[in-house]
Write a structure and sequence with these properties.
The protein is an alpha/beta fold. About 40% of the residues lie in helices and about 15% in strands. It has a single domain (about 1-330), classed as Luciferase-like domain (TIM Barrel), CATH 3.20.20.30. The chain has helices spanning about 15-35, 55-65, 85-95, 110-115, 125-145, 180-190, 200-215, 230-250, 280-295, 310-325; strands spanning about 1-5, 40, 70-80, 100-105, 175, 190-195, 220-230, 275-280, 300. Strand 5 (about 175), helix 6 (about 180-190) and strand 6 form a beta-alpha-beta unit. The N and C termini lie close together (about 5 Å).
Length: about 325
């Protein structure tokens, strides 16, 4: 099994972005030293989802200069806000500059506010998925060295964009699947598939079935927010402030009904966002139980949340890497 970190690069609007970048960079450098395989970064504009990073590829180039082996990637680039040829070119350049350490992830959607920022309309799911599938097709063509070509000779001709991509770049690309249609698109395009932490095990199973039935044969990544401590009691105590803030945020975002009372005490049955909290042994049991429900070969954790100190996050990453990952090294 492989292991990954994911970040939305979140923080209050008034906090300097450079401080947030530096904090996360320190965590990724630690993850690199500890043997994690990936670090993924989301694209967000105008502080949507509290994000401070509209250009994840730039951050990845910076981190590649500070690390030795970890693959950096996007989770995700929102293709409905970009021209696919430009994205294909940018990723190919970044991948060459990092020595083949870019693992790009793509998504079909973004928020209405972000679309409006670029003068783009919101569309129905069918239209959005069709455009996403076509964008991925063009990206694969650019990477293959064939280049995008005009159908039936219509329109101006042009050469294959440079630089030519590394041969294995497509095999390192991922699609975020939050719907059965996205799972099908990932499979038929020959991409790996990653899931959101907001999906339940039964939803994971349905997405996995759709992916495999459509011919998907690449890697699959499950995802959970996480805080690991030496004991379950210490983990729950350390997570309390962060979980309270996340509960309030999810209420504001409509992910939790406003009339649902906030728990007096959080536990595994009522954590917002299906947060994984506990000792290394508890986390090991969770991963094994989830793999019994649905197969996956990459486990993606989101370690950094409001209410957690940088020291807490680094300690959690260290425990995860030294006490959880070795158990699954040969599984």
């Amino acid at each position: 099994m492989k292991f990954a970190l994911t970040y939305h690069i979140e923080g209050p609007r008034e906090r300097p972005s450079e401080e947030i970048y530096a904090e996360i960079a320190d965590q990724v450098c630690l993850a690199d030293e500890l043997g994690l395989d990936y670090a993924w970064f989301a694209e967000h504009h105008s502080h949507i989802h509290l994000g401070h990073l509209p250009c994840p590829l730039l951050f990845e180039l910076h981190l590649a200069g500070r690390t030795r082996r970890i693959h950096c990637g996007t989770a995700v680039i929102c293709l409905n806000m970009h021209h696919p040829v430009e994205i294909a070119e940018q990723i190919a350049v970044a991948d060459h500059l990092t020595g083949g350490r870019i693992s790009p992830g793509f998504g079909s959607g973004s928020t209405p506010e972000e679309l409006a920022l670029f003068g783009l309309p919101s569309v129905d799911a069918g239209t959005r998925h069709a455009a996403f599938e076509e964008s991925l097709r063009l990206i694969r063509l650019v990477w293959s060295g064939e280049g995008p070509t005009q159908a039936k000779g219509e329109g101006p001709g042009y050469d294959v964009p440079l630089p030519l991509a590394r041969r294995d770049l497509r095999a390192r690309s991922w699609v975020a699947a939050n719907s059965l249609e996205a799972a099908r698109i990932a499979a038929q395009g020959g991409h790996n598939m990653m899931w959101s932490f907001l999906r339940t095990p039964s939803q994971y199973a349905a997405l996995s079935d759709a992916y495999r039935e459509a011919g998907g044969a690449m890697s699959v990544a499950a995802n959970r927010p996480i805080l690991v401590a030496e004991t379950d009691a210490a983990a729950w105590e350390g997570a309390e402030a962060g979980l309270r803030l996340l509960w309030k945020r999810f209420v504001e975002e409509g992910k939790i009904p406003r009339d649902r009372p906030e728990p007096a005490r959080f536990d595994a049955g009522n954590t917002p966002g299906q947060f994984l909290v506990g000792s290394p042994e508890t986390v090991i049991r969770f991963i094994r139980d989830l793999r019994r429900v649905v197969p996956f070969d990459t486990f993606n954790v989101e370690p950094r949340w409001a209410g957690f100190t940088p020291e807490q996050v680094q300690a959690s990453i260290r425990l995860f890497a030294t006490r959880v990952m070795p158990v699954f090294a040969k599984e």
